[in-house]
Amino acid sequence: MSETDRGFAEYFAARSDAMRRTAYLLCGDWHRAEDLVQTAFTRLYLAWGRVSRHDALDGYLRRTLLHAFLDERRLAWWRRVRPTGDEIPQVSPDVPVEDRLDLMRALAEVPARQRAVLVLRYWEDLSVDDTAAVLGVSAGTVKSQAARGLDTLRKQIAPLVPTCEES
């Protein structure tokens, strides 16, 4: 194995699980998440020899993953597919399964670009400016998309949360 391939293999081993979780939050399906991650890492591998700043790999990989997701969303077939909730993300066991499923279903109802902003900002914990750079939009667009996405998410979750009168 060449030194280049070894470096890529080490990076893949270190980052593939995190990218898979991010992809799952974007698309809501583990199999599609695997495909998105494979696409992103394949594109990274093809560019590996041209990458001069290996400290910027995470940003490049996130951007590539996001573009693969958004490109996929443009295909009519994927718009008809809805996650079934059969697969549960790996989160704290303290959170009831039903709550995780409800959150994933609600997130699936958020439009793709808004969902991408929410995942990058709140899951990947990127700043507004870093999120804007990954998406290729302005910081103001990130803020408005985050606000709209959170509003949509709240509207989806609100009927599931019991009120004080129901308790």
Automatic annotation (TrEMBL):
Domain RNA polymerase sigma factor 70 region 4 type: residue ranges: 101-152
Keyword Glycoprotein: no
Superkingdom of origin organism: Bacteria
A Pfam family matched in the record: Sigma70_r4_2
Boundaries of every RNA polymerase sigma-70 region domain copy: 17-79
Keywords: DNA-binding, Sigma factor, Transcription, Transcription regulation
Keyword match Transcription regulation: yes
Family that this chain belongs to: Belongs to the sigma-70 factor family. ECF subfamily.
Protein name: SigE family RNA polymerase sigma factor
Organism: Dactylosporangium roseum
